[in-house]
Amino acid sequence: MRIATHSGRMLLVSPDSSRAVDVSQVSGGRYGPGPREVYDVWEEFARWAGDATIDFDADGVPVPLDELGAPSPDPRQVFAIGLNYRDHADEAGFAHPDSPPTFTKWVGGFAGPVGDLRLPTETVDWEAELVVVIGRRAESVAAADAWSYVAGLTVGQDFSERTLQLSGPAPQFSLGKSFPGFAPQGPWLVTVEELADPDNLAIECRINGETVQKSSTDRLIFSVPGLVEQLSAVLPLLPGDVIFTGTPAGIGAARKPPRFLQDGDVVETTIEGIGGLRQVCVATPR
């Protein structure tokens, strides 16, 4: 199953991703219209969707990629994980962590899969990431059971303004990563059963067609089940919560000399079996 959001309403996307129907309309008002209402009854909704007979050709409309929002646009909690690929920890000059370094990206930075990325400074960096959306309350969950608590997976970018992020006596990770548009996600949420191996998905970021990051999620230090286990041991994870799982090597700040995004750059981020994002960088007048 694939779901997306448009104008605050949840859509069910056809298997070939070409057409979509409004969840509230095709369910006769039983589910939705907003994503939060659907995630709060995710298990029931997923059973209904699995049994529903939907004629996407007759009832659907073309998927408007440039109008979609994040698949879970108003989560109660957002978790972001740092240094979660060994090669990224190595390029950043840090030891491999024993527990997941965790910060947040505020919802004000959320955006859909396609659009402009306004650059507030000259030190904005890219970070391709697999993003997890939680489907039911998870509290003290064992890793072996964790996938059953996941609604699905989507593509994300953890754009980062490095000057603010690293300023002051204590780094401002969350602020530096939460400017408007700094958390694009999408184009849709893909449920786990659609993926041949959800623990091993190719991930790539390209800038103006040049590959700058290329890896696989099987290289995560803390896998998706491991993250659910460790985070839910501290506090409950709630339906619709979002987890940015970390980025592989290839970020701009680690290059010599450092490389940052510029006006006109086109950033494309793809994950195998899910889809891709496309942001066009726009310099902010000073």
TrEMBL record:
<comment type="similarity">
    <text>Belongs to the FAH family.</text>
</comment>
<dbReference type="GO" id="GO:0019752">
    <property type="term" value="P:carboxylic acid metabolic process"/>
</dbReference>
<dbReference type="GO" id="GO:0016853">
    <property type="term" value="F:isomerase activity"/>
</dbReference>
<dbReference type="GO" id="GO:0046872">
    <property type="term" value="F:metal ion binding"/>
</dbReference>
<protein>
    <submittedName>
        <fullName>Fumarylacetoacetate hydrolase</fullName>
    </submittedName>
</protein>
<dbReference type="Pfam" id="PF01557">
    <property type="entry name" value="FAA_hydrolase"/>
</dbReference>
<dbReference type="InterPro" id="IPR036663">
    <property type="entry name" value="Fumarylacetoacetase_C_sf"/>
</dbReference>
<keyword id="KW-0378">Hydrolase</keyword>
<keyword id="KW-0479">Metal-binding</keyword>
<dbReference type="GO" id="GO:0016787">
    <property type="term" value="F:hydrolase activity"/>
</dbReference>
<dbReference type="InterPro" id="IPR051121">
    <property type="entry name" value="FAH"/>
</dbReference>
<feature type="domain" description="Fumarylacetoacetase-like C-terminal">
    <location>
        <begin position="78"/>
        <end position="279"/>
    </location>
</feature>
<dbReference type="InterPro" id="IPR011234">
    <property type="entry name" value="Fumarylacetoacetase-like_C"/>
</dbReference>
